[in-house]
Description:
GO terms for molecular function: flavin adenine dinucleotide binding; oxidoreductase activity, acting on CH-OH group of donors. Helix content is 24%, strand content 18%.
Amino acid sequence: MDREPSERADVCVVGAGPAGALVASRLASDGYDVVVLEAGPRFEFDEREARMERAIRPGDEGSVWEMGGERDEFSASGEQYYPLNVARVKGVGGSTLHWQGMVMRLHPTDFEGGHDNDDPAWPVGYDDLRPYYADAERALGVAGDADNPFAPPRDGPYPLPGFPPSYSDSLFAEACERLGIATHSVPNARNSEAYDGRGPCVGYGTCQPVCPSGAKYDASVHIEDAEDEGARVVDRAPVQRLETDRDGRVEAAVYATPDGREHRQTAREFVVAAGGVETPRLLLLSRSQRHRDGLANESGLVGHYFMEHLFAGAGGTLDRRTRQNHVGFITSECHQFYDDPGQAVGRGDGETVLERTDEALSPIKLEFLNYAGPSPVELALGGEEWGDALLSDLREAYGNSIAMGGLVGQPPRKANRVTLDPSTTDDHGNPVPDIRWSWGERTKRSLARANELQHAVLDELGVDISWTVGPGNTGPAYHHMGTTRMGVDPDESVVNPQLRTHDVSNLSVASSSVFVTAGSMNPTLTIAALALKCADHVRERL
């Protein structure tokens, strides 16, 4: 394709993931001249089935979405190792190419600094984002049912009907009811019926890492919409730095092309939508004589307050079939312990199963997994039997596994940060991102509490618990947040409530990097809502 720069555009968007795609689509549909620069390639849709086969074929160690190598080098020098490349995608569509597709709204208490812990408040509230949440649900095609008594208020139904609960969900529901624990459906950005030109989910069950049918939303949908409205999308064009003029405004995004050349894309407004790691990295790489510590970094906070969601889980086997490997996505959850994670659990006869705790905890989101235990392929490869004996072993071992999961959010800690590692460079000679990550005591307490809740449910169900992922052996959900936080005080934040950087008048950030707190809900719907809000504010300035 032609990767030469366009004549001066109205808007240059850096990144073609969900945030960048929605910004580009909305502004292009308003008639503005939009250019999107994406570091990775454009993946052809008709290759998805082959990518699925690569993902499930034993012994294929290659990345399904071509991550790795010098281009994607990183460092992780923090107290806890951060495996950055495990779950990110550089390419048109970004992380939504392999995401699970769960889309919940944050709770009002997330914005207010509630939950009886020390989380700060956001400079915007739930009511500010409420209309954008609705717009985002329509844009992504969210399937859901209004049966969650703990969900924040909404103004109408989901665009699509929700998915029915799985068979294993019904097993959990019986045990939870005896414990006074509510179960409810999960909103998913996948079609339960035909929507927006895409067919309904057909049950491949390989949602992570690839949906071959296109029923699960990915951001290439809005990239194509933006192109239909006249936007120009340049792939394999990693932005090296942003250059400013004598007035301190961004004048051009300097990007590289596969032929080894650099180009300058000029525009009136710039939106960085490169995620919670690459966004601060780009700002730090854009240092100059005028911006010695990086662009938009007068506060010194670019890269600081890196946050994640930590996984808590437990599982084992039942003496009956659970069919928990038959669905590729989660259909039921419990948000009862989100706003009050320390509440007690007991049976209807008054017996207390889990005492109340008043310790400061993060919100806890409990998940009833629809995938648990080893796959039959894994069992067959690891077994020593053949033929009918192997089939008998598989029937005996497969299908009885059952598990719960959950997410716990980290509080914002200034020491957790993304910075540059000049000792390691990428394929263009730039310092790679260095993730300095630690967990903190509140996170560990919250993980332990999540495990206690999970064990209570599994014990009630009669599960022979064989594994637990908790405070000492957990890992990230790969939700990068907080590295260009939003606020009204330029000394304490990087962007203002309109998502424009405090220091640079024509530079905005549309990303989870602007999150002030992490909550414990999957962040993509909030990313989408903020991206639509960002687009509206950019339009006001054009």
